[in-house]
Design a protein that fits this description.
Elements lengths: L2 H10 L6 H12 L3 H17 L1 E2 L6 E2 L5 H4 L4 E8 L2 H10 L4 E5 L17 H9 L5 E4 L5 H14 L5 E4 L15 H9 L6
Parallel strand pairs: 3-4, 3-5, 5-6
Antiparallel strand pairs: 1-2
Helix pairs in contact: 1-2
């Protein structure tokens, strides 16, 4: 396998990148100055060698702890559980959330061989057992696997005295009922609010 084919094959392994897109990206890079390709390679190497999972929450960080866990102004009693580290950035940019996080590192998916032992469920248990956590917010994706993960965690934490809440689900702003799936519409109907 040649260098071009090898790069195409590696790029095609990225989520959302098929073989055609991988080929376009490869040829785009080949048209760039060599120093741009070297900077990209150096950035990838830096990420591979310097980034690690935060031991307290599982978010990505360069130091001993991530910025959220190291921030003394964050409320350690409120823990937002997300599937992936990318969700931390989304919540941070879109909300005024001031608690801490726990990144599971995926979601339960028996068909893909992902059970509780492949996720940071042990870290979640440890954080809750520490006695500081009063509320766990389940912010898993509204997919079948995300719902199963949220249900599993809810059952796991029942009887611990910790309040377990779930992100609200429903219709997106600017959405059209014609294009909303049945599950989302059902959740929106169940969680309807009185107009004041």
């Amino acid at each position: 396998m040649g260098a071009i084919d090898e790069l195409v094959a590696e790029l095609a392994k990225l989520p959302g990148i098929g073989r055609k897109t991988a080929q376009r990206l490869t040829y785009h890079l080949l048209h760039q100055p060599k120093d741009r390709m070297h900077r990209l390679a150096a950035a990838l190497d830096q990420v591979a060698t310097r980034i690690q999972a935060c031991p307290e929450c599982g978010n990505y960080c360069e130091g001993d702890r991530c910025g959220v866990c190291a921030d003394p102004r964050r409320d350690p009693a409120v823990l937002c559980v997300v599937e992936d580290a990318s969700a931390v950035g989304l919540v941070e940019r879109a909300t005024g959330y001031r608690g801490r996080y726990l990144v599971l590192g995926g979601r339960l998916s028996p068909l893909e061989g992902v059970g509780p032992d492949q996720l940071r469920i042990g870290l979640l248990r440890q954080r809750v057992a520490g006695g500081e956590v009063r509320e766990v917010i389940l912010a898993t994706n509204p997919s079948l696997e995300g719902e199963a993960t949220a249900t599993f965690i809810h059952q796991l934490l029942s009887g611990t005295g910790v309040r377990v809440s779930r992100l609200a689900r429903g219709l997106p702003v600017g959405g059209d009922l014609e294009y909303i799936d049945g599950i989302t519409l059902s959740h929106a109907l169940e969680a309807r609010q009185e107009v004041s």
